[in-house]
Amino acid sequence: MTTILPFGTWPSPISAAEVTTSAPRIDGARFVADDAWWSESLPAERGRTAILRLPRNADHGADADVVLPAPWSARSRVHEYGGGAWTVDDRGILSFVEQSDQRVWRLEADGEPRPLTAEAPGTQYGDLTWSNGRLLAVREVAREGHYPARDIVEIVPAVGAAPSAPVPLAAGYDFLAYPRLSPDGDRLAYIGWNHPHMPWDATQLVVLDTRSGETSIVAGGSHESVLQPEWTGPDELTYTTDRSGRWTLERRRLGGLAEPTAAEESDTDTGGPLWNLGARWFAPLEDGRLLAVRTHGRDELVVENTDGSVRAIPTPLSAQVLIRDVRGTQALITGAGATTPSGLWLVDVDDPASARPLRGGVSSRSVGWLPEAVAMTFDGPGGAVHAFAYPPTNPGVDGPADERPPYIVTVHGGPTAHVAGEASPAVAYFTSRGIGVLDVNYGGSSGYGRAYRERLAGKWGIVDVQDVVAAAEGLVAVGMADAARLAIKGGSAGGWTVLSALTTSKTFSAGISRYGVADLRALAEDTHDFEAHYLDGLVGPLPEAEFVYEERSPLRRIDNLSVPVLLLQGADDPVVPPAQAYAMRDALAAKGISHALVVYEGESHGFRRAETIQHALESELSFVGQVFGFAAPGVPVLPLES
């Protein structure tokens, strides 16, 4: 029997504490003999990144062996967002970047970690890669008064007690990624790009002859993003390029012409924004075929055969899908799906029906508790706006027939990123209580081609706001949401859109900003090297666009804001420094607007600790309940100030 209760007051067994453990954050995976190894952020251990392993044939839910125990944590800070913080060779020897000192360490079975690089403050490593039997990495060295210097190095084991000095191999660009040695070891392929470009704007694929020192540019240019080169023959590279407007695989024999790997064009992307080093959207199989991810809003796995034909690989995964490793016809895949929480999967490309999760990928709740995302498209001022709606979902409760539910409109970060409608315990935390969620891929999002990404060029704070407003109002127009109870929530760049929307529109009755940008000019001065010129493309170059920075900043338009705001911030955030949240708090207080600021010690850009994740979710629920006039059962009341 269904109970009728007001939206927002529904009883739910899904606690914030449960959310912290229900969808593991997995950053990489490798095959080692008959085992699968992976890295996982452990909220219960203050967010440290452990290396774990299981036999490939292990039952789901089996206890994993800990390869890298506490207090060690494998996490790189290269480009600030890291990636490629560990790798392992076929013997099971682990090489990893230790979070606390950013040195590279080596761990052999039954041994203790020992350093491969010397202690050097300001030096960091990432994109660790075993390539043709050699350990390669991207090295980043801080320089006083300048951007950091970066090069690709080979890290060699120490002969004596002291670590050996890394061997420089390649440099010449502000940023570097994907070091790959040729099968004979005589050539090094890599990706490079320079300020003011981001890696989704313009990169170059370079091949270095390690004997002569000569380099040649194989692909890329001023309006082409080339990513993930892989050697698929002695003299052949396969990579992804968005020269056509969509990231597409092509191969090139050195000295020859490039040709597409697939016989027919596809209006999808095999590639994405390189926020984290080492991301892989395709992998060569041993028999010459290619396993690839294709994206148009949602993801799918495909196999490109040697004759150019393409075959879909049916799996439950359709969101945030990445190929971590391949052996024979088996692959380690991370991702989530419409009814599948995020996890690590073992997939056989010739037997996809046998695909199964090794870690995560299974909800602890029955299907009735998890909302299935509904893909929706709304008309925006600049064209179609893509979104995913998660209606209130509770197997034992429904809302009054004459009442429309409140909704939280969520804005992803980046802004060059996208959402794909996945089964999310964090979303179910709200929907199971009678609060809907609408996830918006505003203009500027990835996953729909370069033209959609470039809709935001020079118009950050305009197009994104117009699109989230259009989506929210469109949801109301079709009778799915209560126009008087719309909240907007976002983190980082999404937090910027939250604050921009609240200061330029009257669509939303409340806002939640997680480590959001409030002052563009301050961000341009304070942010880190990787994004130092990101705003050049999103807003305009300085000093020419000085007026635009001032005019668009929410902090400068506080007089237009009149609704309650919740600010959540990491105390150690180097990307969006806490000063932004404090300045916004002070402005809200000066105007007498109801608000709360919660600053989490020990947290950076994105929350990783269990206690932080739990408190943030409970704070958001309490905040929304207070603003919309319902009591959130079982949740501490968040004090609001004015």
Features of the shown structure:
alpha+beta; eight-stranded mixed beta sheet; four-stranded antiparallel beta sheet; 642 residues; 10 helices
Radius of gyration: 24 Å
Largest beta sheet: strand ordering: 30-31-34-33-35-36-37-38
How much of the residues is beta strand, in percent?
A: 25-35%
Helix and strand composition category = alpha+beta
**Helical residue percent?**
10-25%
Q: Tell me the total number of β-strands.
A: 38
Our measurement of the CA-to-CA distance between the termini, rounded to an integer number of angstroms, reads 43 Å
Integer average pLDDT: 94
Overall body shape: globular
Described by strand count, sense and barrel closure, the largest sheet is:
8 strands, mixed
Which blocks of ≥5 consecutive residues have pLDDT under 50? none
Number of helices: 10
How would you describe this protein?
The protein has ten helices and 38 strands. It is of the alpha+beta class and 642 residues long. Helix content is 15%, strand content 35%. The strands form nine sheets. The chain has an eight-stranded mixed beta sheet, sandwiched between helices. The longest helix is centred in the last third of the chain and has 19 residues, at 610-628.
Short structural description:
The chain is an alpha+beta fold and 642 residues long.
Question: What is this structure's SSE topology?
Answer:
Layout: E1 3-4, H1 16-22, E2 25-32, E3 35-42, E4 48-55, E5 65-68, E6 86-88, E7 94-97, E8 104-107, E9 114-115, E10 123-131, E11 134-143, E12 146-155, E13 167-170, E14 175-181, E15 187-193, E16 204-209, E17 215-220, E18 226-233, E19 236-241, E20 248-253, E21 258-260, E22 282-284, E23 290-296, E24 298-304, E25 310-313, E26 319-327, E27 330-336, E28 343-348, E29 356-360, E30 374-380, E31 383-390, E32 397-398, E33 407-411, H2 425-431, E34 436-441, H3 450-453, H4 463-477, E35 486-491, H5 493-504, E36 510-514, H6 520-526, H7 534-538, H8 546-552, E37 565-570, H9 578-591, E38 595-600, H10 610-628
Parallel strand pairs: 1-32, 33-34, 33-35, 35-36, 36-37, 37-38
Antiparallel strand pairs: 2-3, 3-4, 4-5, 6-7, 7-8, 8-9, 10-11, 11-12, 12-13, 14-15, 15-16, 16-17, 18-19, 19-20, 20-21, 22-23, 23-24, 24-25, 26-27, 27-28, 28-29, 30-31, 31-34
Helix pairs in contact: 1-10, 4-5
